[in-house]
Specification:
Structural class: alpha+beta
Largest sheet: 4 strands, antiparallel
Number of strands: 12
Bound molecules: zinc ion
Shape: globular
Length: about 270
Amino acid sequence: MKAIKRLTILVVGCSISLIITLSIIDYMHLDDQQPDYNSKYAINEIEKYEASSEASNPSVINDVVLKEPENVFEENDLMPVFTINFITEAIKTRINGISYHENPYISYEDLRYLQVSYFDFNGNTQVGELIVNEKVANDLIGIFKELYAHQYAINKIQLIDAYDADDNLSMEDNNTSAFNYRYMTNHKTLSNHAYGIAIDINPLQNPYISGKTVLPEGSQTFLNREVYQQGMIIKGDICYNAFISRGWTWGGDWISLKDYQHFEKKLQE
Ligand SMILES: [Zn+2]
């Protein structure tokens, strides 16, 4: 009997310890508001995040860190960056009167400023900037994380304001960009870029073709879509699938004209 009693006490004791331990672990666990850290690799980052969690930058509303993609980072400490911010006063200063103009349709509050890591054509990691509609910001973070994980090559990603909001100059420089308060090419209606719900990727390798118009200058060598060259978006590739799986449409699927660089998402009413 004594032995059974001791065993019972031991079992009960162990159970209580286990429950207490689990409660402590649960209490320590990151809640849903914080980034999704799945890898051991991210432990340092969690510590850093917690140390600064009283937000040195209160405008950061989503700071997502990618899972470790196959030892890419063993040689250096660089972390990929995937952040969503509000349009701060500093950013307003950069875009007001250039890509942004006072208008009845889209306000600064509707827009978000993203930073995304990517691999350039030389295989080096870079951090790009994008301004997009807040309704598609999470989509784009997910998409750019996928492109990064597959080392999908993007020539450069900078705000179109670097080109004085001139789409032709941005395209000719093979720049990837999204928001620009402008009209559609050869039309009088606002482009979906004006709402921040469209993005152009690697424009030089992915021209806009309407009748005899081929944009940008220099993209004629990429008209044959059967012969793959770096930077080209091909139906069914990583880039195409990343967008299509999130409900975006591709300009390369259009019939009346082709806009191979262009993806857009219709917002739900
Ligand atoms: Zn476009």
